[in-house]
Write a structure and sequence with these properties.
The chain is of the alpha+beta class. The protein folds into 2 domains: 260 residues, Jelly Rolls, CATH 2.60.120; 70 residues, no CATH class. The protein is 25% helix and 23% strand. It contains 9 helices and 15 strands. The strands form 2 sheets. The chain has a 9-stranded mixed sheet with strand order 2-3-13-10-15-8-7-4-6. α2 runs antiparallel to α3.
Length: 342
Amino acid sequence: MQPIRELSGLTPGQTPTGLTEAATPVVMRGLVSHWPVVTQALRSDAAVADYLQGCWRGAPVAIMTGPPEIDGRIFYNNDLTGMNFGRADAPLPALLQELLRVRTEARPPCYYVGSTTLEDCLPGFQAQNALSLQALAAPGEQAPDALASVWLGNRSRIAPHYDLPDNIACVAAGHRRFTLFPPEQLPNLYVGPIDFTPAGQPVSLVDLKHPDFERFPRFAQALAHAQVAELAPGDAIYIPSMWWHQVEALDPFNLLINYWWRQSPAHMDPPVLTLMMALLSLRELPEPQRRAWQGLFDHYVFNAGPDTASHIPEAARHALAPLTPQGAANLRSHLIHRLQQR
């Protein structure tokens, strides 16, 4: 493993220019060190808990809970027929008090709140703890419309997974270790089911804390290409779209705020839908047909350019025309109609 590239000397609250151009991870030391919540976190766990309770307005939070035996690993059960954790809804103050109560236990239960919309959970938080994404926009354009989420709990390990959106994750309390793998390491990560997952995204079945190289021998190659960094309160990391990442919360009380945004039009559907449709319609074809369809995808999708449909009159290009909101709606309607005919 190698360290993730770092930037320091940044203006707190301002993302640097050119952050996303290389599409590689970057650690930004001190980016949100000015946040009031970070100030409270550096005082004590109780201080940051009081601060968060003051931002809460009554909405329950969805909590993943696991026994001490899972060692914080939010994952499947032993035979992958279910999960090793349960789910419960609770008021945020009750969770905060429980985190404070068990923080001195050697083997506490695992409590994990993940991907909870910040505005729903802690309205008003962003007004006091701001991060400008304007530097991510092209000149003359507005900042990305990012979705801000809160991640809260005690020690936890979230298996390597990818996200479609680009991501800036800001550590507000506790310490977190990020281990990242480039997208091309997919074959070496031994990914589990894509339609039955612990939290929405497919995950690697390898336990990074105790890797089983007899069962997963190619994982050694993934580790050789891995990048790792440990972040303290006030630090942030940029995780590019489609990079696999494990996130490990290292302390008894941890808080992370992240910002997700897509570098694509809102009318585009998630590509994973195409993958699932390909599994349904392409994977079991005879090999010559699969290769022919691979050529079609290369021609119309992966290597598409101005000449792909230039021989067709512009008004007659339909699905081959540049995608617009109306064109996306037409394609979606066509697909739904075709699927309903099955």
